[in-house]
Amino acid sequence: MSYSGRKVLVTGADGFIGSHLVESLAASGAAVIALAQYNSFGLNGWLDETPEDVISAIDIQRGDIRDAGFMRNLIAGQDTVFHLAALIAIPFSYEAPQSYIDVNVTGTLNVLEAARLHKVRRVVHTSTSEVYGTALRKPIDEAHPLQGQSPYSASKIAADMMAEAYVRSFSQPVVTLRPFNTFGPRQSERAVLSTMIRQALDPECTEIRLGDLTPTRDFNYVSNTVDAFLAAGGETDLELGQPYNAGTGVEVSIGDMVKRVQAATGTNKPVVQDNARLRPAESEVRALVADSTRLEAACGWAPAIDLDQGVAKTVEWWRTRIESGRIRRSADYLT
Fold first, then answer.
1. What pLDDT is attached to residue 335?
2. How would CATH label the architecture of 7-183+220-246?
3. Is 152 among the residues known to form the active site?
4. Contact 181, 288 (CB under 8 A)
5. Phi, psi of 152 (to 5 degrees)
6. How far apart are CA 64 and CA 295, in angstroms?
């Protein structure tokens, strides 16, 4: 499906994946409303660092998905809604679990209800591979049991079930996309690959401090994930209400990943385990690797950028930011 001329709303457009999705939609000729979380500083997150031709082609709106009335007004007249807005930092979910329910569950409900009211053609709801918990079998297909191993993952399981309920209860056209460990430019250091690269390149860091090096992940470059979103929003043969995995099928341990980063950055800084970065023992997801054959079979999606290519692109982005001084160091990061 062509997005040219279509009215499209992206929630969470100010975030990592959302800002990349907005760029692709704008390039395709879509009429994009980009929702950024309201703040009193007049900032639009990563949208403030997108090219000027993107900014001039989109309509940035500030607001909050927790406000049902606001979402009803915003969604009116939209053809497609890509719902990416969420609280996603797993460590903070241990500290403030209620906020994850408010944003991830109630916020999703507000999006779905507004879409139902205005008869939106397609909602693409964003899930996460974290809902599977530690793999009970590998690779993980969509029939794998769901395991709430953190307040964050539990909130996303609830949001996924709400999306399914709106399909079953109201015939609302909703597709759930379940990305695995997306990485790339603009990702925050809450993500392990970003913090590896930042520390490897930062001259103020004499070592690379990480948590547990033994868990495995399926790292997927951001443009691959964006392609999956575009397919989920346009492909007519996808099964509504059911999840679709988007991953590479390549399983890499955190320890092996840091070796790749060291090679890509040309550093020999020592790797040190930082206990403050460890998850609670029963909460750590030990293994994630995707079986994405359902999405591939339905629409032909497959990752176009492999792991090493993606790492190289991300290293270059971080290198440019560090050399230009466009980073903000914190005490937590340097200690």
1. 40
2. 3-Layer(aba) Sandwich (3.40)
3. yes
4. yes
5. -60, -55
6. 31
State both tokens at 218. 């399926």
Determine the 3-state secondary structure of 244 from DSSP: strand
Report the amino acid identity of residue 260.
Answer: R
Other C-beta atoms lying within 10 Å of the C-beta of residue 95 = 9
Amino acid 256 reads D
| Domain range 192-216+250-287+306-334, CATH architecture | Alpha-Beta Complex (3.90)
Name the active-site residue from 3, 100, 132, 152. Answer: 152
List where CATH 3.40.50.720 sits in the chain. Answer: 7-183+220-246
Look up residue 116 and give its DSSP letter. Answer: H
Residue 119 C-beta-side C-alpha neighbours within 13 Å: 0
C-alpha radius of gyration, the chain, whole number: 19
CA distances from 114 to 75, 111, 252, 294 (A): 6, 5, 40, 29
pLDDT at 331 over 70: no
- Which of 79, 85, 65 lies closest to 17, judged by CA? 85
The residue behind tokens 């999306």 is 163
Exposure b/e, 14-44, CB count within 10 A at least 16 = b: bbbbbbbbbbbbbebebbbbbbbbeeeeeeb
Does residue 241 contact residue 168 with C-beta atoms inside 8 Å?
Answer: yes
Helix (H) or strand (E) segment spanning residue 202: none
As a 3-state breakdown, the chain gives helix, strand, coil percent values, each rounded to 5, of: 45, 15, 40
The model's pLDDT over 169-226, given as tens digits with 9 standing for 90+, comes to 999 999 999 999 999 999 998 899 999 999 999 999 999 999 999 999 999 999 999 9
Alpha-carbon gap, residue 90 to 76, rounded angstroms: 33
Residue 62 has, within 13 A of its CA and on its CB side, a CA count of 11
